[in-house]
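DOMAIN: structural biology
WANTED: fold as tokens
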Amino acid sequence: MNMKHASLVLALSFAAGSAAAATTDFSSGAQGWTGMQPANGVGGSGIDTSLGNGAPAYRTVLENFGISFTNKTNTDFVRDYTATSAVTFGIDVLAQEITYFGQNVTRDLVLELRDYDNASNGLPYTSVWYTLGTLDASASGWQHFSVTIGNTAGSALPAGWGGYGAEDATGMPLLPADRTFASVLAGVDEIAFTTLKPGWAYGFTQFDVAIDNITVSAVPEPGETAMLMAGLGVLGAVARRRRSRRSN
């Protein structure tokens, strides 16, 4: 391989690696993801091979104030998110039942990124969180939810994001004065997809909800995307020249 081709391969590998996604589709087990277990022994959480959106799914069936799917151990999801300048989170969700006293209700699905190492104010952790959308059992089939953080180095909370770790005078959650959006992202110890929005109170609700295809992916820099496109163009030109030589 000559230097020109070697440089091209290196550039393509770098750009493709920057955009690579980590995915849990539960075909290889839970991979660190856990759901809530009931106190009364009725229902529970675990892998369900009959519900997957292309693979097995992770399902929670129980009555509680809310449900959460969390991960504290998988370093694809629990890490320093400021290591890349932008990142996208995605998840597929199937809501089969959400009822309150027998009536169908909806619940927001929240992505929460938690840092336990710098907790203060008597609260268990500091976090930043975002409402991905609404879970509605009347919706047909699987729903996909996602959010992109366009600047992981930002100090202020981006539009739509909330903070937890301190409270204002009315008891509503906010980031502690000594923490920033980026400082929380730099030390994520737990990732959660949850219906328990910080600062909100809920009544006992019956849930039957499954999740699948959880992804986190770096968003390539514009320069990296341009490099990838240019590299693909060069490869295409090389292939065309080779075909032309073979046909002559």
Remarks:
- The mean pLDDT is 86.
- The helical segments are 3-18, 181-185, 222-247.
- The longest strand covers residues 87-100.
